[in-house]
Amino acid sequence: TVQLVESGGGSVQAGGSLTLSCTFSGDIDKDYCLGWFRLAPGKVREGVASLYLSSGSSFYADSVKGRFTISQDSAKNTLYLRMDNLKPEDTAMYYCAVPAVGHGGYWFVWDELRDSELDSWGQGTLVTVSP
């Protein structure tokens, strides 16, 4: 069983920054991959970033590359998503997630995420970016 709790969402103007946090607990091995995905009304579920906890290797969707940074604090069992230069199109619910086996890393961010490609996720945190 895995527990994931997100926080840090809010409302910002375009060009602003936010940092999301995800505190995780339970059966998460140090070799796991964790990620962030987002879901906006009328859009498909999009994986935006993923991180292998042991190696630190990270992957980003093209839509956020150069603006978002995924990181971890292993001592606090916390995953972060630093979001800079936010755009109105970044408005969405953001979720911390454990990818299903074989769907981590690059595969988490390359295309629409389906239910079968996710093992678990949190309750989400809302990010709203105004023009």
Write the layout of secondary structure elements.
Elements: E1 2-7, E2 10-13, E3 18-26, E4 33-39, E5 46-52, E6 58-60, E7 68-73, E8 78-83, E9 92-99, H1 106-109, E10 118-121, E11 125-130
Parallel strand pairs: 2-11
Antiparallel strand pairs: 1-3, 3-8, 4-5, 4-9, 5-6, 7-8, 9-10, 9-11
A few lines on this structure:
This protein is mostly beta strands.
Helix content: under 10%
Main sheet summary: 7 strands, mixed
> pLDDT average, as an integer?
95
Rg from Cα: 13 Å
Number of helices: 1
- Give the end-to-end Cα distance, rounded to a whole number of Å: 40 Å
The counted number of beta strands is 11
Detail the poorly predicted runs.
none
Structural class: mainly beta
**Element-by-element helix/strand order:** EEEEEEEEEHEE
Query: Beta-strand level of the residues, as a percent range?
Result: over 45%
C-alpha geometry: globular
Structure write-up:
With 131 residues, the chain is mainly beta. The chain has one helix and eleven strands, in the order E-E-E-E-E-E-E-E-E-H-E-E. It has one helix at 106-109; strands at residues 2-7, 10-13, 18-26, 33-39, 46-52, 58-60, 68-73, 78-83, 92-99, 118-121, 125-130.
Record keyword descriptors for this entry:
131 residues, mainly beta, seven-stranded mixed β-sheet, four-stranded antiparallel β-sheet, 11 strands, 3% helix, globular
